[in-house]
Amino acid sequence: MKKSKRSEVAVTIGLTLFFLIFLSPILIAFSASFRHVDDTSNYLKLFQYFCLDSYRLAFGKLNYFRSLKNSILITTSSVFLLLLFSSMAGYAVARLKGKLGSFFQIFFLSGMIVSAQMSIIPMYRIINGLGLSNTRVAPVCMYVTAALPFSIFLYTNFVKSGVPYTLEEAARIDGAKIPYIYARIVIPLTKPALSSLVITQGVPIWNDFFFAMLFLSSPTKKTLPLQMLNFIGDMENATQWNMLFAACMVSALPILIIYSFLQRYFVAGLTVGAVKE
Amino acid sequence: MPTKKVRKVLLCFLIPALLFYVIFWVTPVLMSFYYGVTNWKGVGDYDFVGLKNYRFLIKQGTLSNALFNTIKYTLFVVIWGNLQALTLAMILNMKIKAKGAFRTIFYIPALFSTIVIAFIWSYVYAPYDGLLSEIGRLFGSGYVSNLLGEKATSLFATAFVETWKTSGTMTIIYLAGLQNLSEEVLESARIDGCSAWQSIRYVKIPMLANTITVNVMLGLIGGFKSFDYIFALTGGGPGTSSSTLMYTIYKMAFVEMQYGKAEALAACAFVFILIISTITLGMMKRKELEA
Fold it and tell me: From residue B228, how far is each of A251, B237, B263 by CA, in Å?
């Protein structure tokens, strides 16, 4: 008993050291963000100062609250549409037995091969053609679409293994229509899959700068990660680092706050579909 | 078997997703295959040039360079990422009280935007003032890090950032897989006299086959689509030493205005990714069945 106690302490100390080193880039950036704006002396001296000047500058340059609002607007509408579309389609694919079902499953899944960089200009032209260029709708459309292949795949599998078909049949014998069954039986039973999609697809949408960069040109519509691109010139200029780090911290802040409250769901959401029960 | 009427309703359920998918995903891809056989510059008129773009990509070495860089990047992400995550998951799976806290902290990098991660790591790698150089000075070695600025290291330095960010996700997935292993099998392995290593090699790893598939596929997709860190950290350089497929396509289309050639490269990338993922998935599925 004593021996295992001692080895637990040793492992805990070892892990603590490892994580300190592992997270040191973030720790150092966090500490440096509280320095005076032009203080670039040894960054390894952590948390010796407390000064919010860098944050003040970063807030201004990011146009923080406006960008935050844009990010929230775009992410929530994308995730909402994604959940709606992928659950409807995923349910249909799972229940359309036979050739048609497996055709659609492969048809959607094959979209995972494609990466946005491969066809930017056609995407751009289509968005333009629909009169959506430089609107917040454009990145929303792209986020939903880019996330569909994986989301439909995950949802289909979840319905197949997690929603008993006999339950649906019984409801149908009682006279229930498909939309009712979808809304009242399938959706409640697939909550783990839906919350998994919110986490695994919502976080990358929140963090994405690529589609935002392509489709949002007016400053009033820019999202937080896109505003971060304004700092790209400061990367090589050590005198701007403190402000850059402050910007990094405030742009990550919203999601860190959400994570601190909903951590349990994050861990659970990552492993839906990844681990066979 | 659903009745005809039910099938019709189900097909209607597909419409919203199908519309978005066809308009914003499938059509652009088909259009780019078409542009790949033209000399379009992204604006203005263009002519049909047949396979000239493909010949150019092969002759100039653009294709092989982008392909090899992507393969190297992907192999690094898959192999190093999985080794690191599996090792950490096994350590975290021991009976440690602080396990939950470690897992929580470990996931933090995965929450940051890639652009933010790139900024923070550009500090780590920066010559003279950066973290690595600072540590070098601490030990009096006068080491000046220039990992991003040297041809031999720039690609791996960016790939390392990718594994650093995704390691939390991969570890959590492995940890869940390990916690799902049947205690009885592990116990009987112990009784049969398996050493710790033997039980990892012959019991745990085969039983984790499904989880390994997920993480390998995650690494493959991340590697094939690698763009963000290269865009923000190296710009594909120095020279073209860190230009992966996606970055080269982007640069040819947007910076060099050689849209036709960029799309020919995109078509090559499409075929390449399709072949590799099908083969890998097939192989892993067979292993899973054996296990």
Answer: 17, 14, 19
